[in-house]
Write a structure and sequence with these properties.
single chain, 165 residues, alpha/beta, Rossmann fold, five-stranded parallel beta sheet, 6 helices, binds 5-O-phosphono-beta-D-ribofuranose
Amino acid sequence: MPDVVLMMGSDSDWPTLEPVVTTLRELGVSCTARVLSAHRTPDQTREFVAESEKSGTRVFICAAGVAAHLAGAVAAHTARPVIGIPVASGPLNGFDALLSTVQMPPGVPVATVAINGAVNAAVLAAQILATGDAELSKKLVKWRAAQTSKVLEKDQRLQEKLKHP
Ligand code: RP5
């Protein structure tokens, strides 16, 4: 089993979550993705968490919309870090999922990123793994430096536009 597993409540969440996989791949972190729901497939969800933990998964990323209990349900079954992504689906645009994901009782944490925060979930997972992996730590520093360069280039382009309107 890869270091990171991404679990999502529905395949309708996938377009929002694809950047989790692309970002982890950019960083060279092994990952897989599954559709498993806390409400619709509770037994399979519990079994998958136990199986993943046994075979070496180190971080779980769980994403769901509306009454989003997937991350909390997974956190109830593992002591490995769980990152929650509230997904904006349904009439409340993710506010419901945000509260369902973030408001965990003391003792069962879910590290919740922003609504639809796929990239940050991937980066956070990599940062957790990098605490024990010097190579990955270097890759993360490079990835952040590339991000800095992109912003500086954008600023440069804006300055040029302002000079020559
Ligand atoms: C949640 O319900 C899923 O995570 C998804 O965001 C939402 C809608 O699911 P579908 O009806 O599209 O399967 O459990």
